């Protein structure tokens, strides 16, 4: 019996190949990064980092 191949996408936030996450337009965000983004307050020092990384989505859409 053949084993199913796991598809891995590279997360635009952590740059790691991950099997699970969400697609936004043509970009992928892994489950771990999505969870961290959702719980991050706008005043947190990580917030600008997430915004900067997510800008890749909009830049490619408008290219």
TrEMBL record:
Top-level lineage group: Bacteria
Descriptive protein name: Inhibitor of sigma-G Gin
